[in-house]
Design the sequence.
């Protein structure tokens, strides 16, 4: 079963994304903490796409699909028309360096990588697709 | 999200109510920046009603740690729920900023 939301590319819509993800994944066999961290990871990738690849441009849209697999895995698919950026190629700076440089950014990708099991990034026509997979040891009912 | 700040005895207490994300983190940034400008040296952050924080919020705290060190400012976060604290824990930020269960413990840290 697939669940889908489409939002304008603006950070003021991140709350809608979080509420949507939270509502969907509460149907899955995940602990409260796992649910909280998945909401965080998807918030981070969407914020990253909206700010850095779509420049808060509300004329653009971001689409998020959530799908549960028979083996319990959850797949999040984020599709937008923003600039291509493969976060797998990004080496996150150590936190100590960010602190020394007084940087406010740079932690989001680290969070995503620590929470999500795998991230695939690819182009499909003029769309950039991010496919985030969270494995689960417990099968869902879907 | 709502942030308020007030002086309580010798400490300056910032109270966060709501969720801090990429959209609202600027308000936290402003609150901390104002505290520094006012010359506050003992800052407490009441997180009892902080329901969510993303990297944007973490980044605000991290970006001021050098200023705190240089200016002798002490800061402690208290009443933070376990879910929000887990975000700090994932990146090891609990080693860089004091997060304690109660206001009394926070007051001792900034004394």
Sequence:
């Amino acid at each position: 079963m697939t669940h889908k939301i489409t939002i304008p590319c603006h950070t003021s819509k991140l709350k809608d994304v979080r509420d949507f993800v939270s509502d969907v994944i509460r149907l899955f066999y995940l602990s409260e903490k796992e649910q909280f961290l998945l909401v965080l990871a998807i918030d981070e990738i969407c914020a990253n796409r909206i700010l850095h690849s779509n420049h808060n441009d509300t004329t653009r849209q971001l689409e998020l699909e959530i799908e549960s697999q028979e083996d319990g895995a959850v797949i999040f698919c984020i599709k937008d028309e923003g600039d291509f950026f493969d976060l797998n190629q990004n080496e996150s700076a150590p936190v100590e360096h960010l602190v020394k440089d007084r940087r406010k950014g740079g932690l989001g990708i680290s969070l995503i990588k620590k929470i999500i099991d795998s991230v695939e990034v690819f182009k499909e026509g003029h769309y950039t697709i991010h496919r985030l997979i969270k494995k689960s040891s417990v099968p869902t009912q879907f | 999200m709502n942030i308020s700040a007030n002086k309580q005895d010798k400490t300056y207490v910032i109270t966060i109510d709501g969720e801090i994300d990429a959209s609202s983190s600027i308000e936290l940034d402003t609150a901390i920046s104002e505290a520094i400008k006012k010359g506050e040296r003992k800052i407490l952050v009441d997180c009892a009603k902080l329901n969510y924080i993303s990297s944007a919020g973490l980044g605000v705290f991290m970006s001021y740690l050098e200023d705190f060190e240089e200016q002798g400012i002490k800061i402690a976060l208290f009443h933070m729920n376990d879910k929000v604290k887990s975000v700090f824990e994932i990146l090891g930020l609990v080693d860089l900023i004091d997060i304690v269960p109660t206001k009394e413990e926070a007051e001792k840290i900034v004394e």
Summary: The first strand of chain B starts at residue 2 and ends at 8. Chain B is about 40% helix and 35% strand.
